[in-house]
Sequence to fold (236 residues):
Amino acid sequence: MTPRRRLPAILLRLAVVLAVLAGIVLTALGPATATGLLPYFTVQSNVAVGVLAGYGAWCALRDRPEPPSVLKGAVTLYITITGTVYHLVLANPASPFAMAQPDRQPGEWWGNQLLHTVVPLLAVADWALFDRRGRLRPRYAAWWLAFPVGYLVFALVRGLIVGSYPYPFIDAGELGYDGVAVSAVGFAAVFWLLGLLFVGVDRLLARAGRTEPAEPPAAAEPVEPPVAQRETSGSG
Fold:
């Protein structure tokens, strides 16, 4: 990373870390405790983004290699899923899986916005502005589904034990396992397409970076004529 880009990258990544910490603390001031928040994909993805942003800030400060692009792409995808699902599915009254939005105290409201809106936007900005370009491949979009699938298994097993599920689209008690399977396949397809979108944007940004106009060549220095030619032109 060039020295000119290093300071903005550090500041943006520190902002991500602070937003994650503030979001979790403020949300925990409400009815949910910190441990009660851990089973949510929202909190897990925010923690992953915060840890990676903190490590990325340290790498930029120490002029070390950036985190692997495949890892950063995965974590950025997960936090994008968090923001997208919240705004389009859970908080959208027109969605069949809309969740009732409680009246939150100001602190809890800000915590909710930090985790679902601010952190996703900051993380995507960090990925778009400071990640190395041209390193993502289409097959990564399928690999990145490993964590959401693992989370689904975790949520279903936990639901069998405690009798509750963090999100309505994976609520086996209400939908049955057939219904959960249908919604899971639909969400997986959308997440895969979203991952492909990240790969496509990465390639477009890489191409744009390669096609930036080069600096004009320096003017050629005048070439003196050979000594014999100067002597000939000088005589007579």
About this structure: Residues 172-210 form the longest helix (39 residues).
